[in-house]
Write a structure and sequence with these properties.
This protein is of the alpha+beta class. The chain is built from 9 helices and 21 strands. The protein is 20% helix and 19% strand. The strands form 5 sheets. The protein has a 7-stranded antiparallel beta sheet, with no helix packed on it. Strands 3-11-10-6-5-4 form a 6-stranded antiparallel beta sheet, with no helix packed on it. Strands 7-8-9 form a 3-stranded antiparallel beta sheet, with no helix packed on it. The longest helix has 32 residues. The chain is globular.
Length: 474
């Protein structure tokens, strides 16, 4: 059987460590992943539209976990500097800052200004988003040769297309003639890419075929006027674009992740609901800097206090975290003890894996973060993929989508509905939490305190951001 069609509009915010949040199977990812709710209403599907994060809430890194091969951690700020003073941890480009962490320490959090300074946000556009693999869609969004869609990458809009040979190509979504935007809404097919303004026409690979009245255009050098290319790669069935021509392929940098969770994903997944990763306009916008949302996904230290539902459902002590240079992978088993909440208790009883998964996957939730802002939840009953895209220094859009496999049985579909229902509750909890954090980070003179070992992935992420911006901050 195919995926169930959704009905309601999407909503949601990324929240680490919870089960896929979303409208009951309405295919809308909810940012916070799964839930907590005692006495929550029946799992009727209520659609939403933001990606629901996964158990990343529990994204607690195991004690002593250190980033394997991760970039050097910039030295933490000693004490609390006066507002506006330069970050003492900032090093000149190309130098390696001393690591002041304890041998098994979690590293240092980013200074508050990294979450509030418009200048840093501008630097991130080029040095973080413009130099990393950005999740834009799933292969199922490009089903036939000529299928194309537009997506946001850093400060550019890219056009991603399925080529005639079944491969993928990515170009900047701008005509080489007068700069017209080529594609607005997704298109299911087409043998060429034609500018809607003057009709300049390109092959799917981006090369210029011709222009109307070409003889009236002096010096029309078609070979040099193809669309501007971008790197594109399919990884786990998801389509990523990178503006850096020298970027290391994901299949290389994230080979360990593919080995660990590749059996959950792939190009054969089918979407559940209407929400799509590339639909930025339909995504929920959270009231926080994008890094606050990612930080929240990367740690489970807050789960016992902020997510009682997750504590009833997941084995917090059994949560594990594996940190590599390019990704972090989390796993948490379900509790054996029945939850006191009816929806959580029923989920525990009927949890069943999708086709292609093993019995060992039945009672465990996995979550992954691919640096910097791709978040994927791997549940027995579905996969949720979403991304965190800044719309302002203190706002983040969280577009995403739910996926399942064809042939999924009734029990697994029911489990998925419960999982998503539960997740929306955590999603709402996390939406409030990240807004509170953003407000607090804006307090003059405030600087974060030390991290817990359960926040080791937050330290890994902070080190990557520091390294990317090293010498570039205003």
């Amino acid at each position: 059987m195919g995926a169930e069609a959704p009905a309601a509009p999407a909503r949601g915010i990324p929240s680490p460590g919870a089960p896929a949040v979303g409208a009951s199977d309405q295919g809308v990812p909810a940012a916070a992943a799964s839930a907590t709710a005692s006495g929550a209403p029946a799992p009727a599907a209520t659609a939403g539209g933001g990606p629901e994060p996964g158990v990343s809430d529990l994204g607690v890194a195991a004690a002593g976990t250190a980033a394997s091969g991760a970039p050097a951690t910039v030295a933490p700020d000693p004490g609390t500097p006066d507002p506006g003073t330069p970050d003492p941890g900032t090093q000149a480009r190309g130098t390696r800052a001393p690591d002041r962490r304890a041998p098994d320490g979690p590293g240092a959090a980013l200074p508050a200004r990294y979450y509030t300074d418009p200048g840093i946000a501008a630097a991130e556009t080029r040095h973080v988003f413009g130099a990393s693999w950005q999740l834009v869609c799933h292969e199922s969004d490009l089903p036939e040769p000529g299928s194309r869609l537009a997506a946001t990458v850093a400060d550019r809009e890219v056009l991603v297309v399925r080529t005639e040979d079944g491969g993928l190509a990515a170009h900047l979504n701008v005509c080489r003639h007068r700069g017209t935007r080529l594609v607005t809404n997704p298109e299911p097919a087409g043998k060429a890419i034609r500018c809607p303004y003057h009709g300049w026409t390109y092959r799917l690979d981006g090369s210029l075929v011709g222009a109307p009245e070409a003889r009236q255009i002096p010096c029309l050098d078609k070979p040099s006027l193809g669309l501007f290319p971008a790197r594109v790669e399919s990884f786990l069935g998801f389509v990523f674009v990178n503006l850096d021509p020298d970027a290391v392929p994901l299949e290389e940098s994230c080979a360990g992740l593919a080995k660990a969770v590749g059996h959950y994903a792939g190009a054969d997944l089918v979407p559940v609901g209407r929400a799509r990763i590339h639909d930025l306009a339909g995504a929920e916008v959270q009231q926080a800097n994008w890094k606050v949302a990612v930080d929240n996904y990367l740690e489970g230290y807050h789960v016992p206090v902020a997510h009682p539902g997750l504590m009833r459902l997941l084995d917090y002590q059994g949560y594990t975290c594996e940190i590599e240079e390019s990704y972090a992978l989390f796993a948490s088993p379900l509790r054996d003890k029945p939850s006191s909440n009816w929806a959580e208790r029923l989920y525990q009883r009927i949890a069943a894996p999708m086709p292609g998964l093993a019995e060992a996957d039945r009672r465990i939730w996995r979550y992954a973060v691919i640096y910097p802002n791709t978040l994927i939840d791997f549940y027995p009953d579905h996969v949720l993929a979403w991304t965190a895209l800044p719309t302002a220094v203190d706002r983040v859009a969280v577009p995403g989508a739910f996926y399942t496999r064809r042939g999924t049985g009734l029990r697994t579909r029911l489990a998925r509905r419960l999982n998503i229902h539960i997740g929306w509750i955590t999603n709402d909890e996390d939406a409030e939490l990240v807004a509170r954090v953003q407000k607090g980070l804006s307090t003059p003179g405030f600087e974060p305190g030390p991290l817990s070992r359960r926040e080791s992935a937050v330290g890994w992420f902070a080190a990557r951001i520091r390294a990317a911006l090293d010498g570039t901050e205003p």
